[in-house]
Design goal:
By secondary structure, this protein is an alpha+beta fold. It has 2 domains: about 1-50; about 55-145, no CATH class. The protein has helices at about 1-30, 40-50, 70-85, 110-120; strands at about 60-65, 90-95, 100-105, 135-145. Strand 2 (about 90-95) and strand 3 (about 100-105) form a beta hairpin. The protein starts with a helix and ends with a strand. The relative contact order is 0.16.
Amino acid sequence: MRWMLVVAATLAVAICLVAGVLFFASRQAQHTQDPNLQPLADSLKQRMDGILGDAGLAEQTVELSVMRSQLEAEVARVKYLATKLGGSAVSKQSTAATMDLIAEIPVEYRKSFIDAVTDGFKDLPKASPAASPTMCVVTVQIKVQS
């Protein structure tokens, strides 16, 4: 009779252990899901756009295509345009066929800069000494034609 009691107690402990493991395993699976933060991100983006207005602080990319012999002249032209509008530009060779320039210019001259880069030299507004301290980034990607 005593051995039946020992067997029953052992079975009860084993069943409790299995049930506990299953219980904790099922609760772990429920907590591994990441919360959906997309609505929060969208709301913050809309709020920031409302606060900043149409400042367009997001980075823009302009693509140009030039012959290899004109690459250095084109890089110098883009740097000159950025400087003329109160900003600056730096260049880096990204691949053998592509040169990237990152220009930082006052936000009010962004459209003029992009137009001048894509359309060649044109009348640029004079950079005012009291230009906005808000700067924007424009990436100019120059692709080399063979």
